[in-house]
Amino acid sequence: MSETMSTNEENKLPLNGRRAIPPNYSNDEENEVPEMEAFGLIPRGFNPRDYLRVVDIYMFKEPHEINKQEHHTDKYYNPRLIVRRGQAFQIQIDFNRPYKPETDQLWLEFLMGRYPQQNKGTYIPILVGNVLKPGQWGAKIIHRENNSIRLSIMSSATCIIGRFRFYVAVLTPFGILRTRRNSVTDTYILFNPWCQLDAVYLDDEKEREEYVLNDVGIVFHGNVEDVKSRSWSYGQFEENVLDACLFLMDKAELELSGRGNPIKICRVASAVINSRDDNGVIAGSWNNTYDYGVAPSAWTGSVDILLEYYSSKQPVRYGQCWVFAGVFNTFLRCLGIPARLITNYSSAHDNNANLRLDFFLDDEGKVDTRLTKDSVWNYHCWNEAWMTRPDLPVGFGGWQVVDGTPQETSDGMYRCGPASVQAIKHGHVCFQFDAPFVYAEVNGDIFYTRVEKNGTQVVENIDTTRIGQLIVTKEVGGDGMMDITEEYKFREGSDEERLALETAVMYGVKKQSIQDTTYQPQTDVDMDFQAQKAVLGNDFKVTITFRNKSRNSYTATTYLSGNIVFYTGVTKSEFKKHSFSAKLEPSSSSSFDIVIKSREYMSDLLEQASFHFFVTARINETGKILALQKVVMLEIPSLRIKTKGELVAGKETSVIVEFTNPLKQTLENVMLRLEGPGVLRTIKKQFGRIPMNSTLTWEVKFTPMRPGLRRLIASLNSDALRHVYGELNVQIQKP
């Protein structure tokens, strides 16, 4: 017998001893379905045309027709039928003669993937019956006329989501006759937050409109004292985005049979959103050089990123946390899982679930950058997805943290979540997935530790309130900010907070108690630091204020270190060193001003224009050290967007983007982007340079597609200046 395998398609598959069929994780692949499935030998003279034959199938799949209207899928730019699970939809079948229920036997078939199997939910036969049961597969005739029947079809509330192939099968005495493969009848089935039996059911209509149907959102960035916001286009309904999102599950090799479970989908998606260890969607870069790619700050939305990945299958360069979170939000909303983008200000990182961040000071009281390895991010963005958690005890469903930014590995891959927000608040971090990591991101303490020459460590100061002091998301139905800190933690210092912490420690979060450390702070002197509103390119003033509450006179040797930092809290360079001796009179306050010149910081400035000031003061009479750190954000100028003439759907109009260069230097390699979901696909334009004080004007002609309130979002990116945004809400009239 020859060793060579025949070239038959079936034999090419590497079957092994453990599986009867190969793994089934491609929604794209298909199997051959016979149009005539004979039961045995077919007698001569058998003519399939003598039996009931399907002439045409009508799916009611236009945006204005009943299915897409009732299933809230009318916004998808997709010609196929898109329905949500657990809810009935209608189709019409035309036959070659009237249908006779007494003698004609027919059923419907939905198939997915290359190896459809009934017990895996990838082959679904549906008999036509008389009654539909809620949340279970079934079909019944609701109207008969001439040669046509209209069916109402109910899908299961737990069925897998994705793109199904659809067939109608008719039984004859000699075999099964099926309709021919026709991609026009392909049906997408998605999660259904409107269905009480679905794991993602959300009971508030306003929240469903926001967390499932809103295709633009707000990203909050900046820092706690200076919250900034910008728009992000999720674009989950744009052309090809749904197929791109289904492809991500293929890429993550999630078995088709697992795709009805939002917990599994979130877990694999949090790994595939980033490119670490699986060639996923976005390559992260935090080093301020973005050669051969797009700077993270230049993106205005998710659509370009998802479509580029879908076509190239290669990671898209580059992203940082809000880009990972923006794309993840698009993925979740597109599939029908309610989702929102969260910003945690002063987020603790690199923390191996340890609740302590160490900042080391040398014996003079200056921060020792060599020893200090921990960092506090000015902010960090992640997502919350809404679902039940049948895998956890009762009470831990609802919002779940999922994070696509690669930070730590979880079960061997860069991913995070889903972790129950409720479990994090109460310290029940034993419940999967990755709750200790998220708990530490919002609950760490900062230890300022002085290292003496002989190596002993003395804790000089402990800041228990800075980490996770503000957690926000966009409000429902508006662009304002909603403070959700209380959903993650109890009030600082309350009994409940202490109990939650003890619970978290019991379940393995590492916490060094303050009692273990010799720690006697200077309590009778307060130090405060304030910065004047700082505009990019200008000088500004910072003020250090001491309040001596004692009856003693003190002198304080004070150091100010100004650093240019990445938004992750990692220092790039120190641009300002200043020390002075402060005389502190009894029972009084004294303030000291320091001027920061623009020439000191402009050459090294990073894209988020944020400074990190460390101030340490040694009280000479007692040897005690006061320490604080503060982030200062520069005001970055914005783009101006205006429209010319009236905006009518289907009629060409134009929009103008303007920008004035505020810097005392020429901007080189200027790139502008403009997009608006439902209005226009992203347009990019390269401008060589903008001299100082001069204004750039860019006019874009476009034809808005559909009426309604829409948003235009623009960004400007250049070598010296990034994070420049502009946005405009536009009302598009009906023609």
UniProtKB/TrEMBL annotation:
Residues 313-406 form the Transglutaminase-like domain. It is an enzyme of class 2 (transferase). Binds 1 Ca(2+) ion per subunit. GO terms for molecular function: metal ion binding; protein-glutamine gamma-glutamyltransferase activity. Its EC number is 2.3.2.13. Tetramer of two A chains (F13A1) and two B (F13B) chains. This is Coagulation factor XIII A chain. The gene is F13a1.
